[in-house]
Amino acid sequence: MLVPIFCVALSLAVGVDAAESAQQQDMRRFTYSWQFRPDSELAPRGGTTRGASVTMAPQPNAAWLSLQEDDLSAYELDRLAILAMAGVYQASFDFIETIGFEHDYVPRAPYQSWGTEYIFVVEDRGSFISLQHILVMIMQMPDGSRSEPMTMKHWRQDWTFEDTHMNVYVGNDTWEPESIPTTAAAGAWTQAVYQVDDSPRYESFGKWEHKVGTSLWQSGQTRRPVPRRETSVRKDYDYLLGFNRHTITPSGWTQEEDNLKVRLEETSNTSGDSEVVLAREAGLNRYERIVNFDISPAKSYWANTQRFWDAINARWRQLLQDNKGYRLEKHQGQSFLMSVLREGDRVSRNDIADEEIEHFVDQLFRRFVKVEAQ
């Protein structure tokens, strides 16, 4: 008689589940959602398009396999791990607030988006590796057809071995130089992250750890500007304070973020503004290797615009080598970002002379970058 009793219990449970499902069918929950907050309908926001179907790589990444070889030095393993991030990927981006630190704090909707991304080595000098990301987006249209590819420059990551200097964000659109003691820099790599306009975003340092099947890099805690995914929807905090972890996997790699959202408040004492933490945010960006994906639009874009980006990058390197702080400012209502993106689009479509590019870069830095006096 156990079977009939079990069936009755199961049917009752299914009935309860169905009733609960009917009540919640309009509420899309998310892992780590605030389940007991009736005022928090955490329907994810972000990318509203759907990517065209892609083919996942059927075999483990050759770069990951090379990390499993014996008799490699720590330095060789570090380089292999960094270079393993190059390739063609389907990327997913997930962010959600997990903890609120104010009594009346209302959690914001999680963020989800996607991309198809070509990552390639711009420069490799042994102890310095630069990886450029370029998006090649092909959308699945409502009628089932595929859109034409939309190509744009994404972020860049520069890795330097045993670096003793960093360019760190301090808030209020301001960056300052920071030294790393040689003892702390020994065996470590800095990761400098650059925005889509090639301006610096944040930089930190840490050491790679290699175990059987696993290679990961953990950053120190750094301030970062409010990300673009948030600047258009909220103005209640001033920067992120967070950690990064990069992990190389058989199918690609991941970037995990552990962020605090910080608001600056003026104080009456001389110690400066007070940091108020609003919330903690978890982020997970997955890069899954794909095959048979046409990256020729990315290569064509880079061939047409590399001179432009090289000129901007060279100017930033010169400024950072001078070891001075700087601030990004608006000019006549315009920003560094929008000015660069507009000009970059023009360069990608036209044959622009080197002299014209250099003139633009001169004007760009004169208008938007205020360098601190020594």
Question: Can you describe what's shown?
Answer:
- It is a single chain.
- With 374 residues, the chain is α+β, with helices and mostly antiparallel strands.
- The protein folds into two domains: 45-294; 295-374, no CATH class.
- It is 27% helix and 38% strand.
- The protein is built from eight helices and 18 strands.
- It has helices at 2-24, 62-66, 74-83, 182-185, 228-231, 296-321, 336-349, 354-368, and strands spanning 45-46, 55-56, 87-100, 111-124, 128-137, 150-161, 165-171, 174-179, 189-194, 200-206, 208-211, 214-218, 222-225, 239-249, 252-265, 274-291, 326-328, 369-371.
- Strands 1, 2, 3, 4, 5, 6, 9, 10, 11, 12, 13, 14, 15 and 16 form a 14-stranded mixed β-sheet that branches.
- Strand 11 and strand 12 (214-218) form a beta hairpin.
- Helix 6 (296-321) packs across helix 7 (336-349), helix 6 (296-321) crosses helix 8 and helix 7 packs antiparallel against helix 8.
- 26% of the residues are buried.
- The model is unreliable at 1-27 (pLDDT under 50).
